[in-house]
Design brief:
Elements lengths: L21 E3 L1 E4 L2 E8 L13 E4 L15 E4 L7 H9 L3 E3 L4 H4 L5 E5 L4 E4 L7
Parallel strand pairs: 3-4, 4-5, 5-6
Antiparallel strand pairs: 1-8, 2-6, 3-7, 7-8
Length: 130
């Protein structure tokens, strides 16, 4: 989160206590999707298979081609009016942003459910994430 005085806060939202197997963020594009995670750190050197859940630090216009295949979006940074959120809504893709350390807590190949209406990410494959 960036404030008008220039201060930046990088830690995202966390799930309420007692909800093991759940990550929490800001809901920015409604809908529920279950799929396989694809962690992408660089849009120039990665592929996304149709229906995979794109997990990334943030997006800019270079990431737009991924939205054609993505089943859902999880970003570490962002808010309602950031690039990823806007494009996800345009394409009708469930999206959750501001998920603390999403690219390290989720792993490629892991199965998750993304609820873009509540901001909840449910781990379906408990062995892979921390």
């Amino acid at each position: 989160m960036l404030l008008s005085d220039g201060r930046a806060f990088y830690q995202g939202l966390t799930a309420p206590e007692g909800e093991e197997g759940t990550l929490k963020g800001s809901p920015v594009s409604p809908g529920i999707v279950e799929g396989v995670v694809r962690v992408v750190l660089d849009p120039h050197s990665a592929n996304l298979l149709p229906g995979e859940i794109l997990v990334c630090p943030g997006t800019d216009p270079a990431w737009t081609p991924f939205f054609l295949a993505a089943g859902g979006l999880v970003m570490e940074l962002g808010g309602m009016m950031t690039h990823g959120a806007i494009v996800a809504r345009e394409y009708g893709i469930p999206a959750v942003v501001s998920v603390h350390q999403a690219t390290t807590r989720l792993q490629t190949g892991q199965r998750i459910q993304v609820d873009g209406s509540t901001g909840r990410i449910t781990l379906k494959d408990m062995g892979a994430a921390s």
